[in-house]
Amino acid sequence: MNENASNVLVALVVGAVAGGVTALLLAPGSGAETRKKIQDTLRRTKNKAVQGVEGAKDFAENRKDALKEALHEGKEAYQKAMKRSPAETIT
What is the reported pTM? Predict the structure, then answer.
């Protein structure tokens, strides 16, 4: 995910939370009910954010592992090619 997409995602989440909190504050209901709704909304949003971060970490770890493997295979192919005689490498 590039930086612009990350910024848009963060802005979307922050906007959704701000809109939800504003709606709850303006809705008719007791203070205790409103506070409970806000707490529930924030807890759900936090859980979604944590899941998103964990997913991003897993994705980055998988890409890192794939890159390491590709680098290793590339080194092996290079070393194998260098062991051949110059006449064998021209095909």
Answer: 0.48
